[in-house]
Each structure stands twice: as C-alpha cells, then as structure tokens.
Amino acid sequence: MVSKMLIISSLSDLSSECCSNEKRFLLSLTFLNPEKGKDALCLTIEMEIKKLPRGKNSRLVNFSLTVILFFGLLWIGFSRVTDNSTTSGKIPAPQPGFLAPEFSLEDMNGETVSLTSLRGRPVLLNFWASWCPPCRSEMPAMQELFAEFEYQGFTILAVNATNQDDLEELKKFVEGNQLQFPILLDQTGSAANLYNIQSLPTSFFINQEGIVEDLIIGGMSEALLRIRVKALLSESPVRDGGQ
Questions:
Q1: Beta strands 123-128 and 155-160: pairing type?
Q2: Residue 194's CB: how many other CB atoms inside 10 A?
Q3: 212 contact partners, CB below 8 Å, separation of at least 6
Q4: CA count, 13 A, side-chain hemisphere, 43
Q5: CB-based contact 43:31 (threshold 8 Å)
Q6: Which residues contact 229 (CB under 8 A, 6 or more apart)?
Q7: CA triplet 3, 93, 121: central angle to 5 degrees?
Q8: What does the alpha-carbon distance between residue 148 and residue 141 come to, in Å, rounded to a whole number?
Q9: How many angstroms separate the CA atoms of 66 and 51, rounded?
Q10: Beta carbons of 217 and 199 less than 8 angstroms apart
Q11: What long-range pairs does 104-111 form, CB within 8 A, spacing at least 24?
C-alpha cells in the first residue's frame, strides 16, 4: 500500500473577544499521498468549543479528533494502491541510467517496429507531433544526423502522437521534409503513457544496451543534437552499413 500523509494546513482561532464563553477554531487538513502530490483530499472543519466543565470539554476535543482521524482513514482506504496495480499516472518516467521500457508500434508503412529489435544500436527516441513548432524545427537536423551517422548503426524512432495529430498533415510534413527514419504511429497514446510524456518534443538517447543515457525535454538545436548523438556513438562500436 502507498503510504499517506496527514498535514495540518492551518489552525485559525475565530473566537470573538465579545464571546468569552466559547472558543471557535477553523481547522484545515490535507490528506496527501507523497508519491502522487495531486492525489490529495482537503478538508476544512470548523469547531466550536464552549467553555464547559473540564471533563466535558476534553471529551468534546477527543470526539473532534476522532472525527478527523476517521475521515483520514476513510480516504486512505478508498485511495489505496496495491503493489501489483499499475496506472499510467503512477508510473515514473524513464530516467537516465535505467532500461528504456519496451514497446511496439506500427510505422507509416504498416510495419511493426519494436524497441528491442534495435538492441545493439544507439537510438534517439523522439516523441513529437506535426502541429508542435519546436518538433517541426528540430526534424531537419534529426534527418541530417540520421543520414550522417546511420552507417555507425545510429537510428531514430520518431513516435508521433497520432491520437492528438492529423494523419494527413503528418504525411505532408514527413514527405515535405524527406524524413527517412522510422515514424511510428502512437494511435492510442500507449507509448506516450509508458514514457509518461508531459510535453512535446521529448527525446530519449538510448545506448546499444537499451539504457537511457540522456533525456531532453523541449526542442534541440542542431549543435545540441550533434553533441548528444556523438556522445551516444562514443560508447558504441562502429557498424558497417548501419547493420
């Protein structure tokens, strides 16, 4: 089970000076899941505690705290996540130093391409869309580097956010820029969810062993692309003819 946190956000004394026989408090609580910050329940409780005999006043305070703990436990029970369950919102994004998650998608010719089929080759995995200006800007440089370093085994998988894109516009862009590297169609968003993509473009530089070496969020200049690709190739043996 994922652990939860109870945070007392604020405790305000709303007592009026004219009403000396009672104390009023406004208590704001946040029940927070530390592994998913936005999974939180905010609860505001206004408590009015009158000046009663000491024993009755203590019982009232204890009752109020019991109510608070009850709501907290109730939230934890309904929002619990078991260790063997998975949802896209709880999967961490792949990070440098870790194995790139496997996926298979069809390219624009209807051929299925899997990431593991490229094991042994350095790969630039790029998530993009044809309506995305920085995505469009970096594509010509990516094509140039692909043509220059393909003989060393380097390749590019450009995963298009097809579920958010126009297929006809995509085809026009690919043909207009004469892109030769594989364009994969993520028609359901499954690959983007697997890699927890939050913005486009996002690029993963993966070495020949399938390990993520670098992660770049946002568009890249040709100079930055060249530096990253050369760094990736420096760890890979030269291959003849890109085989």
A1: parallel
A2: 17
A3: 94, 95, 96, 97, 98, 99, 100, 204, 205, 206
A4: 19
A5: yes
A6: 122, 124, 145, 149, 154, 205
A7: 145
A8: 11
A9: 20
A10: yes
A11: 105/159, 105/184, 105/185, 105/186, 105/191, 106/184, 106/185, 107/182, 107/183, 107/184, 107/185, 108/171, 108/174, 108/183, 108/185
What is the per-residue pLDDT across 110-164, written as a single tens digit (0 to 9) for each?
A: 999 999 999 999 999 999 999 999 999 999 999 999 999 999 999 999 999 999 9
Q: Which residues of the chain have pLDDT under 50?
A: 1-20, 28, 30-47, 49, 52, 79-91, 238-243
Per-residue CA distances from 21 to 11, 52, 163 (Å): 20, 9, 63
Q: Distance from CA of residue 213 to its chain's centroid?
A: 18
Nearest to 160 by CA among 105, 96, 88: 105
Structure tokens at 66: 């019991």
Q: Cβ distance 157 to 128 under 8 Å?
A: no
Write the single-letter amino acid at 134: P
Residue type, 173: F
Hey, what are 51's tokens? 């000046």
Q: What is the DSSP letter of 224?
A: H
Residue type, 143: Q
Place of tokens 């000396």: 20
